[in-house]
Amino acid sequence: MPQPNAVRCLVVDDEPRLRRVLVRLLEGEGFTCMEAGSGTEALELLQQERVPLVISDLRMPQMDGVTLLREIVARWPDTAVIVVTAVAEVESAVACLQLGALDYVAKPFHLDEVRARVMQALDKRRLTLEVEDYRRTLERRVQEQAHRIEELSLERLQALVHFLEEKDPYTRGHSVRVADYSARIGRAMALPQPVLDSIALGAELHDIGKIGVSEAVLHKPGKLSDAEYRHIMEHPAIGARILAPLMREAPAALAIVRSHHERLDGKGFPDGLKGDEIPLEVRVVTVADSFDAMTSVRPYRPALSVAKALQELEEGKGRQFHTPAVEAFLAAFPDQATLPVTNPEIRPLHLPSPVPEALHRAAPPPD
Ligand SMILES: [Fe+2]
User: Per residue, what are the HEC states of 102-171?
Assistant: First the structure.
């Protein structure tokens, strides 16, 4: 009598009498069986229901057992297959083992032998699945740890950026304010969360390349020479080089670091990107960065008023700045008296979550 939670299996043989013998034996062992009279029929049944065990004859019309085995191994690799062969077909049986069958039984078979082979095959399958599951768990943990290590490194870099900015009265709080303005622009544009995450990460670290710029040039009062201006404008490319190994999982954030001085009209740095060549995340941060730069004191000029800075953004629409990002900025701050922000929120940095490959894989059929 089949058990309600019994292991499901599929018996494939074109001879109904032999099929019945196997089914009776397996049901006696507590299995519940489906039956197929050909390889084609077996594949149709497996398509409807995956089973952990298939016992198949080798010689069958339409589709022989070897073709069926190949199909099962390719499409349902977690299924254990035992082939039934005639004694004279031992070579075919060995070939089947090489193709992925877990075992074979030779006709005429003893029921005890079939029983033992079935149990062994299921044990082997269970062990294989356990090892595979362990490997996937281990792989996921390694990925999570690598992700965390990269995040910790980014947090250290964030602390370094804040430290460098704090030392300098002209740049104090710049990155945090840019991240805050960018987040508000992104939300006003109703951008999806992964895009907002990239913006938060890239905006906080966008100026990290200034580590590689001479302090004398950075703090020079008065007008910069062309050479000095070019030297300062190396900071986006330097920043991208510093962060590239840590931001393999966050290419959009890395693009913000490299391209935050690009302009829609192609007159920006360092690559002279134009229009849509500049990623959306970058276009958002550029508006925030420019507004904060304009409303901050610089060694060579006083801060612009909020009204004047907003006017500059308006006038730069479509030429320097992405029009929807400027409009989103204006919508996010309907009251100009709240600008510039005085207490921007410092948020911990996060890389976009990795999606482990294991999550994409379907679970094996239940036993
Ligand atoms: Fe910059």
Answer: CEEEEECCCHHHHHHHHHHHHHHHHHHHHHHHHHHHHHHHHHHHHHHHHHHHHHHHHHHHHHHHHHCCCC
Q: Are 176 and 162 in contact (CB under 8 A)?
A: yes
Topology of domain 147-338 in CATH is Hypothetical protein af1432 (1.10.3210)
User: pLDDT tens per residue, the chain (367 residues)?
Assistant: 445 557 899 999 999 999 999 999 999 988 999 999 999 999 999 999 999 999 999 888 888 889 999 999 999 999 999 999 886 777 888 889 999 999 999 888 888 888 999 999 999 999 999 999 999 999 999 988 888 888 888 888 888 888 888 887 778 899 999 999 999 999 999 999 999 999 999 999 999 999 888 888 888 888 889 999 999 999 999 999 999 988 888 999 999 999 999 999 999 999 999 999 999 999 999 999 999 999 998 877 889 999 999 999 999 999 999 999 999 999 999 988 889 988 777 777 777 654 444 433 445 555 5
Per domain, the residue ranges of the chain are 8-109, 147-338
> 162 C-alpha vs ligand 1 centroid, how far in Å?
14
- State the distance from the centre of ligand 1 to the C-alpha of 298, rounded, in angstroms: 13
Q: Pick the catalytic residue from 107, 124, 167, 210.
A: 210
CATH of domain 8-109: 3.40.50.2300
> Catalytic site residue 317?
no
Q: Is the pTM of this model over 0.85?
A: no
